[in-house]
Design goal:
Layout: H1 16-26, E1 31-34, E2 56-58, E3 64-66, H2 67-118, H3 124-133, H4 164-167, E4 207-208, E5 212-213, E6 230-231, E7 245-248, E8 254-256, H5 257-267, E9 282-284, E10 299-302
Antiparallel strand pairs: 1-10, 2-3, 2-4, 5-6, 7-8, 7-9
């Protein structure tokens, strides 16, 4: 435990700061850390690469991706789904083969018992004579065999005696140790899911995005190095993570939600293309995060086992 003198305190209680320090060093207890601005994705960055998009597209849920990155992600996911499906089909085939073998063994056992019971009915004298000639098994009583015929012996309770020797495993003998069966695979999902929202991704649902740069003279390479890169084409407000934004399907531009509420929703007409808008044509973009806890979660949490002192 941490010493009080080392932490410049003469308190007789175990302080909160000391408890956090000891929990971090011991490996027990939940750890929490506040995320900095460098850990927050910008609103115009790809949700996969976390880099500014060169060819941005948006999903119906408002998540922005780089077209090249999301297509590559979908191809990889389809290959992974196909691989998992093959493993699942192979597992089902093995299970069917095992079930067929067990069924055949059960039928053979039924035939054997039927043959023993109904095949021939020996007389009492023949049965007694055959019982005397049978070899003596370990832990079982055989009438008239050996010096132990005067005493009755009973079936052994050992799990390594008689037929149980091959049926039960042994921890101490590696050759007899049982192995754990592999966990059964569930049928894999064949649809490609969004890595952020968990919903189905479809290539035909992607919509191109046209950001309005602050300086129209900037080329595509220089604009990525600027802090304030894009603005609303209607109000000319700078677009940042602290600015709620919306995507217009008709003109494929990004505007502020304030512009949508105060200007666009009055007449429901796109101010860029002049087309008639519907509610489904306005998609609110998902922001990467801000430095304010009231807007986004800025705390990272790592859950670890709790150490209870008794």
């Amino acid at each position: 435990m941490t010493r009080h003198g080392k932490n410049c305190t003469a308190s007789s209680v175990y302080s909160y700061a000391e408890r956090r320090k000891d929990a971090k060093a011991s490996g027990y207890g939940t750890l929490r850390a506040r995320l900095g601005a460098d850990s927050v994705k910008e609103f115009d960055c790809c949700s996969l690469t976390l880099q500014p998009c060169r060819d941005p597209v948006v999903t119906p849920n408002g998540y922005i991706f780089d077209k090249e990155a999301v297509i590559e992600y979908m191809v990889q996911q389809k290959k992974e789904n196909a691989r998992k499906l093959k493993e699942w089909e192979k597992q089902n085939k093995l299970e069917q083969e095992k079930a067929a073998v067990k069924s055949e063994e059960a039928n053979e056992e039924k035939k054997r018992k039927f043959t023993e019971q109904e095949g021939c009915l020996p007389s009492a004298n023949n049965a007694t004579e055959r019982k005397r000639k049978m070899p003596r098994e370990e832990g079982t009583y055989v009438a008239g065999a050996g010096p132990s015929s005067s005493k009755d012996s009973f079936q052994s309770v050992s799990n390594m005696a008689g037929e149980n020797k091959n049926k039960n495993g042994s921890f101490w003998v590696p050759a007899l140790a049982t192995t754990a069966e592999a966990s059964k695979l569930e049928k894999p999902q064949q649809k490609v899911l969004c890595p952020v929202s968990g919903r189905v991704l479809k290539l035909k649902e992607f919509m191109p995005v046209k950001f309005t740069p602050v300086d129209k003279n900037d080329d595509g390479k220089r604009v990525f190095h600027k802090k304030d890169r894009y603005m609303c084409p209607v109000t000319h407000d700078i677009l940042t993570n602290t600015t709620p934004c919306a995507y217009l399907k008709t003109s494929q531009v990004v505007v502020t939600m304030e512009c949508v509420e105060k200007i666009i929703k009055k007449d429901m007409i796109d101010p860029i293309s002049g087309a008639k808008l519907e509610e489904s044509d306005i998609i609110e973009l998902q922001r990467g995060g801000t430095g304010f806890s009231a807007t986004n979660k800025v705390e990272a949490k790592l859950v670890r086992p709790q150490l209870e002192l008794t």
